[in-house]
Amino acid sequence: MVRNFLTNMDGKTVSDKLTGTTISGGLEIPPQTCPSNKLGIYYLFPFYKWPETQAGAWATPQGTVCLHENYTPVRRHCSEEAIWEDPDAERCAEVNVNDITNQLFELLRENSPEAINILVELTAKNQECFIPFDIYLISKILDKASEDSEIAENPDNFTGVISNLMDFEREILNVAQQLLNCTDNILYSFDKLLFKTQNTNITQSKLFVRAVQVANNVVGAMIKSKNTTSFDHFQFFPLDNVNQLQDEDFEIAFIVPQNFAKKHYYISLFYNDNLFNQNETVTLGSWILSILIPETRNDANSRIQIYFKEFNKYVNHSCNHWKYGNDENFIARPGKWKFDSVATKFKKEHYICEVDHTTHFGMLVSGTVPENFILDLITIFGSILSIIGIIVIVLTAILFEKWRNEMSRKIVINVSICLLLLIILFIISDRVNNGKGCITIGILLHYMVIAQFCWSLAVSYSSYRRYYMVFNNVTHIVKFCVFSWGIPLIIIVITATINIETYDKSPDEESSQICYPKGIYLKLGVCLPMAIILTINLIIYLFIIKNLTVTTLNLRKHVAKKSYNKQKVLVLLFFMMGMSWIFGVLVAFTDNIIFLYIFCTTATLHGFVIFIFYIVDSSEIKQQWKVAINKIIPKKLSATLSSKSQSTDIVSESVAGSFKY
């Protein structure tokens, strides 16, 4: 991670993060805070003092240990409007705190150097006995110590505490972060201390710190090691030429142009991501690197380069930074990984991430787990088969008038065209850049997704009429076209009119890698109509299963083949009615890998299944293709290419009526 505290992402300095920002004319705008309050809610906490707290942050009573029965701290939220909310408990629970908590509470009152000396020993043992409130007390001790000049002169024990914390159970640190932003505060205290140090060269088992002096012949450095069990074996080598990296096997390297820093800068290497906690789960693919640059000089034409060595083999590698602190409105926000760009391959096992500015930034390579590679292959293979099948269906419709004029096949043609456009738009959306082009693709993609579901509803309605109502009248395909192509247009017009920018990619979010609606527009403009249609289709599909199952049970043996054809009808309707999306819903709610594989397989093979049922399994259309091919290819070659096996009874005769009524 590249972190520059003199200028963060919004152009604010380190002091700005805590006290406010200065605009032209020297006027300082402080962040909003909830004032210190000794009474809290008067009759609940009459003796407890709530410290001054920044808007958006949580506080716990100052000067006392106040816990819930589950030993998490009693908290009070300062709203984004800087108004105190009620505490999350009526009173402090009567719990017996352990010796560690009592000892930490006393250390908070001690002189900082002495407290740090004791804290480094305390955090090195019995780590499983610490509770989230203990992490909060540690963060307060470190914050106080980061202001001490004596500790800045000898930061070994301070960094020893940071190293020890990375051996703690991840769950305890994560809970402490979610409750009181503790691990973010620990990181910030560590960075504050580094700015006060000089010529820092520290190696702890889980933390590696170096001060790099800017010199004419030094462009960066690389860190090498043959043993990665701890940082004790890591070695730091300055670089005077970037070409040195080509022939070296290193753990991590960086190139900082000389116009970024005046005299020196600091680098820190973190052994794991235990101090980087967010709600979403991510996979760490490399070491975490921090670069602090005092008195930075921004240069839009220069780039900081970081060379990461991957831990394991992954398919995707992305560059991320850890963003925490205040937002643009000075509201306190918990930290999270923010996507920057896709990492580029440097050489075997090594990737490059580049930063073209010196803001509060970090670089993290995180790859997808190996299972995603298989899922990607399934998706690509299924999509290719569907595209080929749909192209053959469209050619069949163009060449053979009799085939395309039949009612069920007109529906199939429309469904196939919709699927083909949907696949193409999805591929384009994944590669188009932000801007008007992305918005256009997003609108078209949104339209095709809703159109696909509307056509599946048309199939369901036609099938329902086939099995449950009188169907001796022929419905005109025009009605289905007006519904399936018209309803999506209305939804898209409403969405685009309210907020057309929702179709654009979000540049700072990894989750937004396609041009598609987001937030409330995704829920109301995509998920809601999909849920309604899928529910209706599922009910109709279950009715059809019941009808065909009862009929099949009453069949005699000599009509077993007809029973087999009805089973094929159910398979076809499963795809035509969008039943594969049921597994997509199950994935969203359960995160089950089995459901994910089923969904990726069935959803991408939609077009290919239609091709199998309507082209391959139809002796009539195969005969028409044979006649057409004979007109183009010499008879001998045509006879060689043609299949001599007898075609089975076609399912199309059973299915063709499925969409009639």
UniProtKB/TrEMBL annotation:
GO terms for molecular function: G protein-coupled receptor activity. Its main location: membrane. GO terms for cellular component: plasma membrane. Keywords: Membrane, Receptor, Transmembrane, Transmembrane helix. The chain crosses the membrane at residues 373-399, 411-429, 441-464, 476-500, 520-548, 569-589, 595-616. SUPFAM superfamilies: Family A G protein-coupled receptor-like. Residues 375-618 form the G-protein coupled receptors family 2 profile domain. One of its GO terms (biological process) is cell surface receptor signaling pathway. It comes from the Eukaryota. It is found in: Membrane. InterPro entries: GAIN_dom_sf (IPR046338), GPCR_2-like_7TM (IPR017981), GPCR_2_secretin-like (IPR000832). Pfam families: 7tm_2. CDD domains: 7tmB2_Adhesion. It is a multi-pass membrane protein. This is Putative G-protein coupled receptor 112-like Protein. It comes from Tribolium castaneum (Red flour beetle). The gene is GLEAN_00764.
